[in-house]
Amino acid sequence: MTLEKILVVGRQPNTQQAARPFAKKLYAADEVEDVWELLEAVDPNLVIFGQDVDRTDILQTLQSLRKHNLERPVLVLGPLNHPPLETYLAEYKSAECVLNIENNDQLADAVRRLSQSEELPASDNRFFMEDCPSSVSIVGKSRAMMQTLRMIRLVAQSNCNPVLIVGETGTGKELAARAVHILRNGSQQRFVAINCAALTANLLESELFGHTKGSFTSADREKIGLLELAGNGTVFLDEISEMPLDLQAKLLRVLQERKFRKVGGLEEIECKATIIASSNRNLFQEVEAGRFRRDLYYRLCVCPIPLAPLRAESRREDILLLAEYFIQTSTICPEKRGKIKGLTSMAAEMLTRYHWPGNVRELKNVIERAILLESSDRIGTSNLLLNPAFSFETDQPQETAQTISIKDFSLEKAERELVKKALEEAGWQKSRAASLLGITRATLYAKVKQYNIQEPEKKPQPVS
Ligand SMILES: Nc1ncnc2c1ncn2[C@@H]1O[C@H](COP(=O)(O)OP(=O)(O)OP(=O)(O)O)[C@@H](O)[C@H]1O
Ligand SMILES: [Mg+2]
C-alpha cells in the first residue's frame, strides 16, 4: 500500500524510515510549527507524528487543523501517555496510533485503514493547483486563477475587512467568498449571504440590520439581522452595486465604526463579522454614473479579489479542466456516473472556442445537459447546446431572425438581446429564462432592470 504523499513530523530518523515504504513522496517537518506551511504547500494524504513529538503539541495541532477544516488522516507513533490525546484519537475517525514503531504489520494495517478512511482529503491534482488547500474546491490552473488564489490566501490571512470580489456573472465570486471565509474562520463560523438585487430597499435593510417589534406595520416581532447573526463569521453581500444609495450610507457607517442599530432600535450592536461584497458590474463606472457612493467604493476597494472571465486568454486553459471536473463530479444522472469518460476532440474544440457569457455556471449547465443527452461514453458536439450567437471564429455568421447581430461587437447590446430572447423563449417566466441563460434568477432580475426590458402587454384573449 503506497500513498502519494506522506508528511512526517519529528526529528527522529526512525520515523522517516518507518514511513518510507508507504509513500511515493515523503516530506519532513522537524517541528510541529512547520506542519501548517507544509500542509498548504504539499497537501499530503497522511501526516505521521513521530515518538519524539510532544503529545500536547500534537493534540493542539489536530484541534486547530480541525477548527480550520484542514484535517488530514493522522498516524501517531509510539506510546501516547496522554489521556486527552487518546480520547481525541478515539473520536477522530481518520486518526490512529501505532504503539510499536518496529511492528511493520501494524504500521501497514494502520496506513491501509487510514488510506480508506472517508475523511481522506478529496484533493485531485488534475483539477486543483498544487498548493490549493483541499478544503477549497476551486478548480483551475490558469495564470488568472493562480493570481486569484494568491489574493484569496493573502486576504484571508490578513485582517482585511471589508473584502471585495469582482468578476462577471458566474465566474465563481461566491465560491471565492466561501474560500476566504473558510481559510479565515474555519467551518465553525457562519457564512450568511444576501443578494442585494433580489430584495426591496426596506426588506434589505431589515434583513441586514434586523428590526425591533413595531418598527413598521408588519414588524410583529423583533428580528435579528444578518450582521448580528453572522457573529464572528462572514456576511456575503452579493451584487452590492444594486444596494440603494441610502442603505450604502448606512453600510459605510458599519464598516467605519463596526457598530449598527436595528431598524427602529436605539441600542448600538457591535459587528464582528467579516463583510465580503461582490459585484459583477464595474463599480468605478457605477460611481462615475452616480449610482454608487464614492466613499463606500474606496472603503471596499482595499484589496479586491478579481475573477477573470472564462474567455480571457489568461483563463481559457481552465475551460477543459472545468468541463472534465464537472463530467467527473456531476450527480445529475447517477446511473451514468463514471461511464462518461470525457469529451470528443471536436467537442473540446467547440468548448474552447465559445465565448461563455455565463462563465463557469454556464459551462456547468452545458455539461450537465450534455450528460443527460449523451448515450455514448464521450460527449460529442451534437449534445453540447451552446448559444451560437456567442461562438468565436465561426464561418461567416448567418444572420437570420433567430440569431443576434454582433456586427458592432457591443457586448451590452448582445447581452440585452440575449436576455430578451431567453425571456420570450421562456414565455416571460423568469426562472425558466434564467436557467436557459445559465444564470441565477437574481442575476436575471438585475439584467432586466439594467437593460429596462419590459414584457409586452398581453392582448386580451377572446372568451370563446
Ligand atoms: N473555479 C471553479 N471551480 C469549480 N466550480 C466553480 C468554479 N467557479 C465557479 N464554479 C461553480 O459555478 C457556479 C457559479 O459560481 P458562483 O455562484 O460562485 O459564481 P458568481 O460569480 O457568484 O455568479 P453570479 O455573479 O451570477 O452570482 C457554482 O455552481 C460554482 O460552484
Ligand atoms: Mg453570486
Summarize this, please?
This protein has helices spanning 13-19, 35-42, 55-67, 83-91, 104-116, 143-157, 173-185, 201-209, 226-229, 245-257, 283-288, 294-300, 318-329, 345-353, 359-373, 411-425, 430-437, 441-450, and strands spanning 3-9, 23-29, 46-49, 74-77, 95-98, 163-167, 191-195, 210-211, 223-224, 234-238, 259-260, 269-270, 274-279, 305-307, 342-343, 378-379. The protein is of the alpha/beta class and 464 residues long.
Write the layout of secondary structure elements.
Blueprint: E1 3-9, H1 13-19, E2 23-29, H2 35-42, E3 46-49, H3 55-67, E4 74-77, H4 83-91, E5 95-98, H5 104-116, H6 143-157, E6 163-167, H7 173-185, E7 191-195, H8 201-209, E8 210-211, E9 223-224, H9 226-229, E10 234-238, H10 245-257, E11 259-260, E12 269-270, E13 274-279, H11 283-288, H12 294-300, E14 305-307, H13 318-329, E15 342-343, H14 345-353, H15 359-373, E16 378-379, H16 411-425, H17 430-437, H18 441-450
Parallel strand pairs: 1-2, 1-3, 3-4, 4-5, 6-13, 6-14, 7-10, 10-13, 15-16
Antiparallel strand pairs: 8-9, 11-12
Bound molecules: adenosine-5'-triphosphate (ATP) and magnesium ion.
Magnesium ion binds at residues 173-174, 238.
